[in-house]
Amino acid sequence: MNDAESILSDMNDRSRDVFRAVVETYLDSGGPVGSRTLTRSLSEKISAATVRNVMQDLEYLGLLDSPHVSAGRVPTQMGLRMFVDSLLEVGDLDRQDQQKIDATMGQNAGDVGAMLDQVGAALSGVTQGASLVLTPKHEAEIRHIEFVSLAPDRALVVLVFSDGQVENRLFTPPPGQTPSSMREAANFLNALIEGRTLSEARRDVQSEIQKRRQEIDSLAGELIESGFAVWDNDDSEDARLIVRGRSNLLAENDAEADLELMRHLFDDLERKRDIADFLQLTEEGEGVRIFIGSENKLFSLSGSSLVVSPYMNSDRKIIGAVGVIGPTRLNYGRIVPIVDYTAQLVGKLLSDRS
User: Fold this and answer.
1) Do 217 and 243 belong together in one domain?
2) Longest dimension (CA), the chain
3) In this structure, what DSSP letter does residue 85 have?
4) Is the CB of residue 111 less than 8 Å from the CB of residue 123?
5) Which ranges of the chain would DSSP assign to H, the alpha helix?
6) Does one domain contain both 25 and 40?
7) Separation of alpha carbons 300 and 298, rounded Å
8) Mean pLDDT across the stretch 52-68?
9) Distance in angstroms (rounded) separating the CA atoms of residues 93 and 149
10) Which pLDDT value is given to residue 237?
């Protein structure tokens, strides 16, 4: 039993009722909660003085805090954690919310990236927070590769995948490249990488070039190395974090201190750092996880909360994640089923495609 569970088990019914009422009122209003406000919402008719005494006890336990001397109380991070783990009542997914999320799934069905972008926009719109969608790595087999000359110092390498997706990259070819060297380079790569995924091909191309150096024209060899290397130096084929709805966070925060916290969050989101860590947050199993304040390693400086759930492919392997980030006063009971439903739907859609 951890400290929060121990505290909860030692609390009497009145203390639990007051604590629950403080947290629920705070999550609804976003501001400190006073004793007079609580006396109107509690089922048990008790005086404001009694409520104040109970709130003082809860503050002593570390569950509540007083932002100002004369103001009401707000839950601490430990208080929110205890509420989420032990007292949170998660509602059913609202029918209108479900319809808005469902409506995005039929859009851009042929393009996974565009579809997930639409999912992020819908998730942000439904929750009025900022949404995060970690896209899966593209692991379809390669069907064909081609080099296209655009200018003496610029060329295009095009990859066609077995699922129909086409990716291309601009690169600087070696000086003196010719149509024949481009054909030779493409033929060499097609014989080598057809039927392999990009990550498999990355491992093998360099070693094959070294082994078969005598078989390849030197110009074609340089072209292969410089053309295929753009995928080694480009993370766009790896997991990508889509962020939508950052303006919603500003609308919810007027106080100067809150805006400073949001600035830290925006800086983190802009850099999109530690994307791999975002997926690791979900790797302890299926289902929705909630990270509050400093528990959230990725965005700890902003004091934000993150509600996140992984989605899986047909082999039950975690390949990505969806989440909502916002202030600690998120409506957890409403957002948890939204994130859970969206993750399951994305997983099913991607499994059906494969």
Assistant:
1) no
2) 91
3) I
4) no
5) 3-10, 13-29, 35-41, 48-60, 77-82, 95-105, 112-127, 179-193, 198-211, 218-232, 246-251, 256-271, 275-280, 332-353
6) yes
7) 6
8) 89
9) 53
10) 46
Per-residue pLDDT, averaged over 108-113, amounts to 65
- Its domain, for residue 37, covers 3-87
The type of residue at 31 is G
Q: Is the pLDDT of residue 108 over 60?
A: no
Both tokens of 277, joined, read 């860590």
Burial 301-314 (b: 16+ CB within 10 A, else e): ebbbbbbbbbbbbe
pLDDT at 182 over 80: yes
What distance in Å separates the CA atoms of residue 15 and residue 55, rounded to the nearest whole number? 8
- In a shared domain, residues 105 and 196: no
Instruction: Give 32's contacts (C-beta < 8 A, 6+ positions apart).
Output: 26, 66, 67, 68, 71, 72, 73, 74
How much is the pLDDT for 80? 93
User: pLDDT band at residue 22, thresholds of 50, 70 and 90?
Assistant: very high
Evaluate whether 18 touches 27 at the Cβ level (below 8 Å). no
Long-range CB contacts for residues 16-20, cutoff 8 Å, separation at least 24: 16/87, 17/42, 17/43, 17/44, 18/42, 18/51, 18/54, 18/55, 18/58, 19/58, 19/63, 19/64, 19/79, 19/83, 19/87, 20/83, 20/87
Whether the CB-CB separation of 35 and 52 falls below 8 Å is answered with yes
Work out the number of other CB atoms within 10 angstroms of the CB of residue 242. 19
Q: Which two tokens stand for residue 265?
A: 């969050």
Q: Are residues 171 and 205 in the same domain?
A: yes
342 band by pLDDT with thresholds 50, 70 and 90: very high
Tell me the residue length of the chain.
Answer: 354
Counting the structural domains of the chain, the total is: 3
Distance CA 132, CA 68 (A): 34
First to last CA, the chain: 43
Cα angle for residues 340, 243, 343 (degrees, 5° grid): 15
Interatomic CA distance for residues 160 and 181, integer angstroms? 20
